[in-house]
Write a structure and sequence with these properties.
alpha/beta, Ribosomal Protein L13p, Chain: A, 4-stranded parallel beta sheet, two-stranded antiparallel ribbon, 5 helices, 6 strands, 28% helix
Length: 142
């Protein structure tokens, strides 16, 4: 009996579109991370990029449960003294709703060199339209 090892050239990539309107942030992020990584495919290999492209639309209409809108903070540090800045989730959703979803999905991917490759396949848009109609994306159920 032989073991089949998938090669990078043999990977078939699909495009999926997800409507984030009314979806819970964490549940949507876990499903998107699975598809980006390729865990839904029978040829999954942890050391290769076998995942698919994911387009998320309506990022500004994402749902957050509990008191996270006022208690969850996003931090960034410039490297200088006094350079720590923080933004509350409600403000981040108002200004840059795409960044909230990118940050959530990025936190659910492995922390290695593969993460940057996987994140390039994620496209997030605040509105209902996207410029990837030529790829004929299929709807992804979450």
């Amino acid at each position: 009996m032989n073991t089949h090892a998938v090669k990078a050239a043999d990977v078939q990539r699909n495009w999926y579109v997800v409507d984030a309107e009314g979806k819970t942030l964490g549940r949507l992020a876990t499903r998107v991370a699975q598809v980006l990584r390729g865990k839904h495919k029978p040829v999954f290999s942890p050391h290769l990029d076998v995942g698919d492209f994911v387009i998320i639309v309506n990022a500004d209409k994402i749902r957050v449960t509990g008191n996270k809108l006022n208690s969850k903070y996003y931090y960034s540090y410039s490297g200088y003294m006094g350079g720590l800045s923080s933004v509350v989730l409600s403000e981040q959703l108002r200004r840059h709703p795409e960044r909230v979803l990118v940050h959530a999905v990025q936190g659910m991917l492995p922390r290695n060199r593969l993460r940057a490759v996987l994140m390039k396949k994620l496209k997030v848009y605040a509105g209902a339209t996207h410029p990837h109609a030529a790829q004929k994306p299929e709807p992804l159920e979450v």
